[in-house]
Design a protein that fits this description.
This protein is of the alpha/beta class. About 35% of the residues lie in helices and about 20% in strands. It contains eleven helices and twelve strands.
């Protein structure tokens, strides 16, 4: 029996080309396995083979979406694989969105089975979990050795049109599909077993997880901004030059609090970005592009706002968990309230 033909999609980092400085490379098609493709080769064994690898820079894909989709789809049409795999992207946001986007496109346009993998908090997971099988991974590439075998196994099941088990059985993110089945134990017994475990403080898995839709009601509009103190907060990683608090470039464990009393402009010699998820060149040249201190100083002078708050708060958003982000905000929000800040401008990348 001949091996199934597989195409693997990866970004510039996993192809060994480079980091953010190479994130603008155009899509290219290479023969054979590249980077993590070697792990897939081992996981597939004699059942499948990566015949080609598609490589595309994260910035290029997201900034030239329609063009990138057309180019990559052309590669896939040319090779005509039995299976298309992307990633795994773990918690890399732009990479995850790219993996989900191209998997969804290949599946819908060409009818080719697809599989990808990422952390449940990756924005790509939320966008595509209901249309594409996404194997759940941890938040970093340390989990590669666990993620790849699960992706390979589920990918082969999809190609062979074998029955796909529940998400907890086959390791993919819940996609809203529910299938009736007969269990060995009746419902009342399973319910009591879960209750006993819960009362004893032991781990248990609910059979019907409820969705968690957090809604934050907007505040009322501010009628007169000329009397309001405005603060700047950013997930763009803008920090004083040298990153004195060593805020991580990804998966931040802390935020920074910096005084800008008397600062009229964020210059190249005094401020930079610690963010590792976008090309830092333009932000390092002029950090006002991410944290607009210069513009708000003009508004302050013109009386459009009461004043600019003397401190700004900053962290890096890429890879940072929702739990950590909430904890950061809860802490510095109290400081802003204490300082009688009336409005906050939150900037990203």
């Amino acid at each position: 029996m001949s091996k199934l033909k597989v195409i693997h999609y990866i970004n510039q980092f996993y192809a060994g080309i480079g980091g953010e400085e190479k994130a603008d490379i155009k899509p290219e098609l290479r023969e054979g396995a590249v980077g993590p493709g070697a792990a897939f080769t081992a996981a597939f064994g004699d059942k499948a083979q990566i015949t080609h690898t598609i490589i595309c820079g994260d910035s290029y894909f997201n900034e030239n979406l329609e063009k990138a989709k057309k180019e990559i789809l052309g590669f896939v049409k040319k090779v005509k694989p039995d299976l298309f795999i992307a990633g795994p992207a773990f918690n890399a946001g732009r990479y995850g969105v790219a993996c989900g986007t191209i998997c969804d496109l290949v599946q819908s346009e060409l009818g080719i089975p697809v599989i990808t993998g990422m952390y449940r908090e990756n924005p790509g997971a939320e966008m595509f979990k209901n249309s594409v099988y996404i194997v759940e991974t941890n938040n970093s590439a340390v989990d590669m050795r666990n993620a790849v075998p699960k992706m390979a196994k589920l990918g082969l099941k999809i190609v062979k049109k074998e029955p796909i088990g529940a998400s907890i059985e086959d390791g993919y993110l819940p996609n809203g599909v529910r299938v009736n089945f007969f269990d060995t134990d009746r419902g009342s017994k399973r319910a009591v077993d879960m209750l006993v475990k819960k009362l004893a403080g032991k781990p248990f898995t609910t059979e019907y997880p409820m969705p968690d839709f957090e809604k934050v009601p907007p505040n009322k509009a501010i009628k007169d901004m000329s009397k309001v103190t405005v603060a700047l907060v950013t997930s763009g990683g803008i920090v004083p030059y040298g990153n004195p608090d060593h805020i991580e470039s990804s998966s931040a464990s802390k935020y920074g609090e910096y005084d800008i009393t008397g600062v009229m402009d964020l210059t190249e010699s005094t401020y930079e970005t610690a963010h590792g998820g976008y090309d830092p060149v333009y932000a390092n040249q002029d950090a006002d592009r991410v944290l607009p201190v210069d513009v708000l100083r003009e508004f302050e002078k013109e009386g459009k706002i009461g004043k600019l708050h003397h401190k700004f708060y900053t962290t890096t958003g890429n890879g940072t968990s929702t739990k950590s982000s909430k904890a950061f905000a809860k802490e510095f929000a109290q400081k802003l309230l204490y300082d009688k800040v009336g409005a906050v401008i939150l900037t990203s990348t």
